[in-house]
């Protein structure tokens, strides 16, 4: 990744990272900051990061050979051979990943434009893109690309904040305790949005209470003048709100400062009246599902917090199209539809997707589901509960792919689901061999699973076979 809203001055880098200048001039100006040695251009600062199977320090030499003007460095080994490059700036830091957040924080502190940061158990990217759409009429926003929301993606996004931007919208994603503090420090938000709280990343966070506490650290980072946008009546968050002094704005379909009234579900749109402190406005939402009404309300609250009018918000959200692989309604031959919602999956998002499938008027409903990852010790229980929900919704045919099929089946059957409606498959190839020849019999098809399951390949097969 590369950030190019410099110049980034060596002395400022040393100060931000609490580092030590080992060689080079403190007045050196870097044109860009890069974490990828393959993406280096002349004059860049290279930040080598460590992963599970690689160490970016191994690529410092190629980065300098490619024209990098400087390099951050943690550890004592092999740095001497880097000093042979003329005019190189070498900065010793304790941890290059943490230094990336420190650099972002220092860069952000120089900018006085409003920054909206979005986190939550599900809906982050959709809400972030909705906000970007809503503020786009009155601002030139910097917006996180895709789901670049982690310890690398968010700081690099902030480092791209330039003088031409009048606002920023970033996404903050975590999966272990302690990460949000770094992300919040990098973003220094003026508005913090929490979309939902639910059972996600339990492998790293342990409990839903921990999920709420970790995500709420984004709100704790707000100044007293900041605004927190929170789901109305969320029991995991309410007690935490008493510990902060920023403004709290709540959203909810039925209750909250931003809520939906007179909801009408049409074949391809959901129409409702946005009720807000600034008045009412009609929104005709192109993305389906009650969860997307909630997402729209969260986006509306965030946009209103930075001065966007309800009418402009409504017009922007009425024209909003979902990000790729997130509740995409794709038309198939013969009036059939494919719900391509396979970017990721957790219990909340799977329930929401199944409700959308069940609400479709098309005859014959097929759900192609797959494992929900990172749920830790609660994996089997949560898959069983999704099985129960699928049975209650009366989906005509379900194919479950992955290692938690038996847990899903136990819940499905316990809730009265008929065994002949459910098929368990070990992998996607087996699933396609079972259903491929019959795919045209189904009028509405949902494809849903965690990112690791790569269920978009199943969606591609359906499109090819239509």
Automatic annotation (TrEMBL):
<dbReference type="InterPro" id="IPR035911">
    <property type="entry name" value="MurE/MurF_N"/>
</dbReference>
<feature type="domain" description="Mur ligase central">
    <location>
        <begin position="118"/>
        <end position="303"/>
    </location>
</feature>
<comment type="pathway">
    <text>Cell wall biogenesis; peptidoglycan biosynthesis.</text>
</comment>
<dbReference type="GO" id="GO:0005737">
    <property type="term" value="C:cytoplasm"/>
</dbReference>
<keyword id="KW-0132">Cell division</keyword>
<dbReference type="InterPro" id="IPR004101">
    <property type="entry name" value="Mur_ligase_C"/>
</dbReference>
<dbReference type="InterPro" id="IPR005863">
    <property type="entry name" value="UDP-N-AcMur_synth"/>
</dbReference>
<keyword id="KW-0436">Ligase</keyword>
<keyword id="KW-0963">Cytoplasm</keyword>
<dbReference type="InterPro" id="IPR036565">
    <property type="entry name" value="Mur-like_cat_sf"/>
</dbReference>
<dbReference type="Pfam" id="PF08245">
    <property type="entry name" value="Mur_ligase_M"/>
</dbReference>
<feature type="domain" description="Mur ligase C-terminal">
    <location>
        <begin position="326"/>
        <end position="451"/>
    </location>
</feature>
<dbReference type="GO" id="GO:0071555">
    <property type="term" value="P:cell wall organization"/>
</dbReference>
<comment type="similarity">
    <text>Belongs to the MurCDEF family. MurF subfamily.</text>
</comment>
<keyword id="KW-0133">Cell shape</keyword>
<keyword id="KW-0547">Nucleotide-binding</keyword>
<dbReference type="GO" id="GO:0051301">
    <property type="term" value="P:cell division"/>
</dbReference>
<dbReference type="InterPro" id="IPR036615">
    <property type="entry name" value="Mur_ligase_C_dom_sf"/>
</dbReference>
<keyword id="KW-0961">Cell wall biogenesis/degradation</keyword>
<keyword id="KW-0067">ATP-binding</keyword>
<protein>
    <recommendedName>
        <fullName>UDP-N-acetylmuramoyl-tripeptide--D-alanyl-D-alanine ligase</fullName>
        <ecNumber>6.3.2.10</ecNumber>
    </recommendedName>
</protein>
<dbReference type="GO" id="GO:0008766">
    <property type="term" value="F:UDP-N-acetylmuramoylalanyl-D-glutamyl-2,6-diaminopimelate-D-alanyl-D-alanine ligase activity"/>
</dbReference>
<comment type="function">
    <text>Involved in cell wall formation. Catalyzes the final step in the synthesis of UDP-N-acetylmuramoyl-pentapeptide, the precursor of murein.</text>
</comment>
<dbReference type="GO" id="GO:0008360">
    <property type="term" value="P:regulation of cell shape"/>
</dbReference>
<dbReference type="GO" id="GO:0009252">
    <property type="term" value="P:peptidoglycan biosynthetic process"/>
</dbReference>
<feature type="binding site">
    <location>
        <begin position="120"/>
        <end position="126"/>
    </location>
    <ligand>
        <name>ATP</name>
    </ligand>
</feature>
<dbReference type="InterPro" id="IPR013221">
    <property type="entry name" value="Mur_ligase_cen"/>
</dbReference>
<dbReference type="Pfam" id="PF01225">
    <property type="entry name" value="Mur_ligase"/>
</dbReference>
<keyword id="KW-0131">Cell cycle</keyword>
<dbReference type="InterPro" id="IPR051046">
    <property type="entry name" value="MurCDEF_CellWall_CoF430Synth"/>
</dbReference>
<dbReference type="InterPro" id="IPR000713">
    <property type="entry name" value="Mur_ligase_N"/>
</dbReference>
<dbReference type="GO" id="GO:0005524">
    <property type="term" value="F:ATP binding"/>
</dbReference>
<dbReference type="Pfam" id="PF02875">
    <property type="entry name" value="Mur_ligase_C"/>
</dbReference>
<keyword id="KW-0573">Peptidoglycan synthesis</keyword>
<dbReference type="GO" id="GO:0047480">
    <property type="term" value="F:UDP-N-acetylmuramoyl-tripeptide-D-alanyl-D-alanine ligase activity"/>
</dbReference>
<feature type="domain" description="Mur ligase N-terminal catalytic">
    <location>
        <begin position="32"/>
        <end position="107"/>
    </location>
</feature>
């Amino acid at each position: 990744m590369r950030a190019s809203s410099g110049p980034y001055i060596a002395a400022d880098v040393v100060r931000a990272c609490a580092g030590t200048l080992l060689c080079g001039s403190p007045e050196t100006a870097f044109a860009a900051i890069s974490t990828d040695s393959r993406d280096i251009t002349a004059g860049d600062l290279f930040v080598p990061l460590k992963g599970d199977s690689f160490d970016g320090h191994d690529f410092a030499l190629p980065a300098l050979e490619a024209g990098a003007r400087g390099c951050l460095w943690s550890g004592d080994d092999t740095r001497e051979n880097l000093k042979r490059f003329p005019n190189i700036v070498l900065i010793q830091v304790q941890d290059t990943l943490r230094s990336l957040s420190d650099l972002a924080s220092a860069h952000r502190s120089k900018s006085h434009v409003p920054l909206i940061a979005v986190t939550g158990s599900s809906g982050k990217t959709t809400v972030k893109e909705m906000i970007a759409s809503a503020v786009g009429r009155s601002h030139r926003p910097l917006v996180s690309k895709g789901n670049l929301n982690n310890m690398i993606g968010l700081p690099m996004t902030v480092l791209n904040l330039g003088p031409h931007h009048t606002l920023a919208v970033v996404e903050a994603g975590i999966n272990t305790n302690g990460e949000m503090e770094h992300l919040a420090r990098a973003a220094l938000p003026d508005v913090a949005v929490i979309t939902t709280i639910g059972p996600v990343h339990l492998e790293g966070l342990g409990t839903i209470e921990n999920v709420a506490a970790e995500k709420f650290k984004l709100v704790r980072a707000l100044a007293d003048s900041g605004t927190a946008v929170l789901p109305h009546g969320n029991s995991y968050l309410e007690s935490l709100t008493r510990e902060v002094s920023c403004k709290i704005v709540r959203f909810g379909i039925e209750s909250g400062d931003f809520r939906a009234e007179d909801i009408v579900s049409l074949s391809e749109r959901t129409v409702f009246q946005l009720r807000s402190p600034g008045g009412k406005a009609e929104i005709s939402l192109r993305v389906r599902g009650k969860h997307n009404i909630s997402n729209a309300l969260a986006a509306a609250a965030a946009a209103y917090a930075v001065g966007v009018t309800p009418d402009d918000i409504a017009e922007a959200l009425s024209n909003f199209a979902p990000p790729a692989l997130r509740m995409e309604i794709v038309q198939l031959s013969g009036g059939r539809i494919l719900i391509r919602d396979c970017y990721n999956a957790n219990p909340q998002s799977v329930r929401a997707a199944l409700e959308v499938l069940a609400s479709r008027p098309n005859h014959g409903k097929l759900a192609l589901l797959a494992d929900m990852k990172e749920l830790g010790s609660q994996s089997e229980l949560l898959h069983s509960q999704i099985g129960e929900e699928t049975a209650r919704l009366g989906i005509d045919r379900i194919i479950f792919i992955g290692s938690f099929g038996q847990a899903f089946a136990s819940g499905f059957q316990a809730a009265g689901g008929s065994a002949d409606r459910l098929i368990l498959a070990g992998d996607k190839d087996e699933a396609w061999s079972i259903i491929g020849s019959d795919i045209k019999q189904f009028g509405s098809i949902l494809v849903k699973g965690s990112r690791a399951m790569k269920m978009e390949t199943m969606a591609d097969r359906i499109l090819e076979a239509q």
